[in-house]
Amino acid sequence: MLPSQAAEGAIQDAFLKWLATAEYLEFHKMSAHSAADWPKPEHTFVCPGKPISDSPDNPRSPRAPSGAAGEEPGTEPFGDLKRAPHDVLERAQRAGRLKCCKCRGSRMFYCYTCFSLVGVNPEEIPQIKLPLKVDIIKHPNETDGKSTAVHAKLLAPDDVTVYTYPCIPEYEDNKHQVALVFPGPGSVTIEEMMGQLSKLVVKKSRYPLEHNRSSEQPPQKRLKGEGNSEDGESSASTPTEPEETSTLKRVVFIDSTWNQTNKIITDERLQALLQVELKTRKTCFWRHQKGTPDTYLSTIEAIYYFMKDYHVQCLSQQYQGQYDNLLFFFSFLYKLISKAKHSSGKL
Predict the structure, then answer these.
(1) pLDDT number for residue 341
(2) Where is pLDDT greater, at 230 or 301?
(3) How far apart are CA 294 and CA 288, in angstroms?
(4) What pTM was computed for the model?
C-alpha cells in the first residue's frame, strides 16, 4: 500500500470512529448563544461560509471518505423518496466545517442557530410549498444542534415559523382552523381530524355575535311583532357573521425532548386546540429517547408524515412525493450515522 493510500485510509477510519462515538455529527455541537439571543428570521439567509483555520485551537474536521453517504443493503428506509440528489451535501461534507458568516459558529451544511445555509449552493437545496402553515414551538432548553426544526425552516421557509417558548401565537379565535400534533389521551387521528374541527365551527357559530359582545351586555331581545313571516321564514334583520368553515389552515408542532414537553403542552394558550396523533408512523431518528414508543417522531418526521397523510386522507389526492424533500437533510444524516455505526460494529 502506498503511503498516500495508507494516510487516506487512516483519515477514513478516524472519521467513522469519530462519527460513531458522538452518535451525531460534530457539526451539531451546542452553540454558545443563549436562548434569549436566538434569532428568529422570517426568511432563510444564505451564507457561503468561510473556511475555518487549521490552527490547533480550531482544527478543521477530517474529510469524509469517498462514498461515506452510501448505505449498506437493507439499512436505508428512505430509498423510495422522490427527493433532490444529495450531491451538494456530499461535496459540503468533503469540504469540511465552515464558519457561519452571521454568528461565526462552526457549522456544516447549515447554521441551526441562524437558520441559514453554510457552504452550500442554495440553488441545489430543494424548496417546498406546503398546503398548510406550520408553527414550531421550540423549548428554550432544547439543544439547537439536536433539533430537526431547522430542516423544515430551510426547506419550506415561506410556510414554516419557529417560535421559542414562551413565545406562542394566539390561536383562540381560529382554533377551528388549527391542529396541534401531539400524542395524548384526547388526541385523534388525521382521518378523524376534519370532523372534529367541524364540531368546533358548529359550537362557535351557535351564537355568532356572542364572542364580539361584552359579557356585561345582555343578548338583544326580539321586539314584539318580530317573528316568522307568512311564508314561514324569519323576518328579523339580525346581523350575522360570514359563514365559517372547518378548513384546516395551520398546524402546530412542539420541538422538545419528551421529558420537557409538559411545560409547553400544558400552556393555557394551547388547551383549546385539537390534538392530533400520528399513531401508525415509526421514527428513524438516531437520537430516539429510551423508554418512549417508536411512534414518537422527531419534529421533521412529524411534519413530513402529517403533510403526507393530510394530502391523501383530507385532500383526497394521490400522493406522488410532493413533500418527500422535507426529509432531504434528515435522510442524508441518517445514512451518514448508520454508515458510521455499521463500520464501528454498533449495528
Answers:
(1) 79
(2) 301
(3) 8
(4) 0.69
